[in-house]
Design brief:
The protein is built from 6 helices and 10 strands; from the N terminus they run αααααββββββββββα. By secondary structure, it is of the alpha+beta class. The protein folds into 2 domains: 112 residues, no CATH class; 143 residues, Cupredoxins -  blue copper proteins (Immunoglobulin-like, Sandwich), CATH 2.60.40. The protein has a 5-stranded mixed sheet. Strands 4-10-9-6-7 form a 5-stranded mixed sheet. The longest helix is centred in the N-terminal third of the chain and has 32 residues. The chain is elongated, with a radius of gyration of 29 Å.
């Protein structure tokens, strides 16, 4: 016996709901598939063991992306589900049922974003504080001057320096870069390092890619970096602030070596006669606040 009762619409809507959660499942698969080291650290350079700060920064970056991907997956899932489930069907006319407000949903999408913002702020401040706080009593203190378009490194405790030649002078005859002429900063592994960062002319930015850390260099102002290099190797650095014609060639290298090799390098600078300090007396801007000519005893000899 046949029935004239209208068929329920619940079954089609259930099927549509299952299709709507497909983007969420796809996003989960992509996240869970991150099995390589590069994927596990959010495609950031370096690794968690390059300095004492890189592990925390990678964790902050990766965990933030996980939360944001989850929020995005839920948001897009709800949008797609609503667009499909409440679409206009054949034979329907007039305006769909209107709702003035839905208090539980409005409370949800007000409170949850507020909690997310507070969480991101708190974890960011915690990580930034650990990076920017001066631990005191550095084992190595180095002064870095950025200049168009190179770098000067002063090893203050050892009273030696390493001057950088201008970027345009590091070019081969065919216009390619002679990497052997790049300024190189040596650091001893496992020791507390303080770097004082200054500019001789315009704004620059001191950036060691694998350290996940960069610092602005403002004329007339000294900024500081504090960290412990924990993995030996050669790391690439560059200026991260557009500073003129040869900005793209304002490159340098950082070599993290054993304390013994570091001492050998310092002695090599002494043997070259590079004793003293290339101080602010070589700055182009001599009339800025905070810039005072260094005394003769502090200058390069």
């Amino acid at each position: 016996m046949s029935s004239d009762r209208p068929r329920s619409r619940r079954a089609p809507r259930s099927r549509l709901a299952r299709w709507a959660i497909a983007p969420i499942g796809l996003a989960a698969v992509i996240v869970l598939a991150g099995c390589t080291q590069e994927q596990a650290q959010g495609f950031l350079p370096g690794g968690p063991d390059v300095t004492n700060h890189t592990g925390g920064m990678i964790d902050l970056w990766v965990n933030s992306w996980i939360v944001l991907l989850a929020v995005g997956a839920v948001t897009w899932g709800v949008i797609i589900w609503a667009a499909i489930a409440y679409r206009r069907r054949t034979g329907q006319t007039g305006m769909p049922a209107q709702m003035r407000y839905h208090m539980p949903i409005e409370i949800f999408y007000t409170i949850v974003p507020f909690i997310l913002v507070l969480g991101f702020f708190a974890f960011t401040v915690r990580e930034q504080t650990s990076i920017e706080t001066d631990p005191g009593n550095p084992d190595v203190k180095i002064e870095v001057f950025g200049k168009r378009w190179s770098w000067d490194f002063n090893y203050l405790d050892e009273k030696v320096y390493s001057p950088g030649i201008q970027a345009q002078d590091r070019l081969n005859s065919d216009g390619s870069l002679d990497e052997s002429e790049l300024p190189t900063l040596y650091l001893p592994v496992g020791e507390k390092v303080q770097i004082d960062i200054e500019s001789r002319d315009v704004a620059h930015s001191f950036w060691v890619l694998d350290f996940l850390y960069k610092k602005d260099m403002i004329p007339g102002q000294t900024n500081h970096m504090y960290f412990i290099p924990t993995k030996e190797g050669t790391y690439q650095g560059k200026c991260a602030e557009l500073c003129g014609e040869y900005h793209s060639l304002m490159l340098f290298q950082v070599k993290v070596v054993s304390p013994e090799e570091y001492d050998t390098y310092i002695q090599s600078l002494r043997d070259l006669g590079q004793v003293g300090r290339l101080g602010p007396e070589y700055n182009v801007n001599q009339n800025l606040p905070g810039i005072a000519p260094a005394s003769g005893s502090e200058s390069a000899e």
